[in-house]
Amino acid sequence: MTDFSKTRILIITYYWPPSAGGGVQRWLKLSNYLHDFGYDPVIFTPENPDFDLRDHELLNEIHPDTETLKFPIWEPYGIFKKLLPKSKANTSIHQQGSVNKNSGIINKLATWIRGNIFLPDPRIFWVRPSSRFLKDIIQENEIKAVISTGPPHSVHLIARKLREEYGIPWFADFRDPWSEWDLLESFKTSKIAYKYHKNLEKSVIENASLVITVSDHWARDFKRLGARKTITIPNGYDPIDFKYFHPTLKNEKNVKFLHAGLLSEMRYPNHFIDAIEKYNGNHQIVGELMGMIDEKIIERIRQSNKLNKLIKIDGYITHRKLLQLYEEVDILLLLSNKGFNNEGHLPGKLFEYMATGKFILAFGDPNGDMAEILHNYKNYELFDYEDKEGIKDFINNLNRDRFSLKVENKEYINQFNRKEQASKIAKLLDAYIGKSNE
Known about the structure:
Elements: E1 7-13, H1 22-34, E2 39-46, E3 67-71, H2 77-83, H3 88-96, H4 105-116, H5 127-140, E4 145-150, H6 154-166, E5 170-174, H7 191-207, E6 210-213, H8 216-225, E7 230-232, E8 254-260, H9 270-278, E9 284-290, H10 295-302, H11 305-310, E10 311-314, H12 319-326, E11 331-335, H13 349-356, E12 359-363, H14 369-377, E13 380-383, H15 388-396, H16 410-414, H17 418-437
Parallel strand pairs: 1-2, 1-4, 2-3, 4-5, 5-6, 6-7, 8-9, 8-11, 9-10, 11-12, 12-13
Helix pairs in contact: 1-17, 5-6, 6-7, 9-15
């Protein structure tokens, strides 16, 4: 039920339950907590989005007072699914943010079209009809501000149109970069297409009242690229998810690690897997890899008799099940991107990992934003992907005492609490809406 005593804001997002994965968690959680600070979010999302990862349990987590507006979208992925029905997983990888470099000619064509024709992304066909549809919504519902969250970055173009039409405050939220996104090169983006990306990006970040992004490094990048004002609001964790969390460490010889989510070549810790295969110490290292996993990585593990016995590979699991698995493992595996501009890449699961208090084994830039956060968390080890000897030494000298539950900086971790972050956003909305009404 709509609470007319609250200020109504519009949040434009492609990913919304039952969509699964990291893209949906950020604004599902933040919108829920914005109700506590005097705001009544209205969600605008596609009626028929083309994503394969679904978690219907997340529908139960939407705040009962949140209104969801759905509008039809046409996406071109269906064409390629019809041409290659057996390659549905590969097609979905194009959607979720990775590229299978060894795919067939149709998938390679799809990659090139994705990077050079459908700009800024294949959801571009949703922009014009959505902009027309939302004009009446803005006025009839007394919407006081708009928040757009990408990728896909097409959603920002919808918000830009509303900003131009009504002059209301607009926060453009970037969960990933745009023109400096490390995957653009993988899409075989031409110079002409790249320039078009740059121009679209400039029109968004220069016109948005505020650019929000998930790391300090990327906030500085957007400022350099022309954003009027930037602020960092990282991904976070929801304290409700950990209300009944009971971390355990089993007194046994096995040391168990876990990674759930996208595992592509850009995040493959090959030296870690090699070290496990060669390990002959006092413990047995076992692990679980779950989610969308590159076929070459699956093949590498299954071709090894030893790794095939030690490492369980499975598909996507629900967020609730993932939280349960956190309780049972010794090591939480954190994988940042290897590519360009990875200094600012903060995997969304980092903050849930810290909320568990468990040991984090991370791979990524030792000088990036992730390294700084882990340093303050303390219960971790971080390696560069190419630190073969360091990774080998860590595995060969495993000590279960390293995995004792020691969270020494709870105050630091609490700043990533979704409710705290929603409070920060609410204060920003207060300021910008107040200015627009003066």
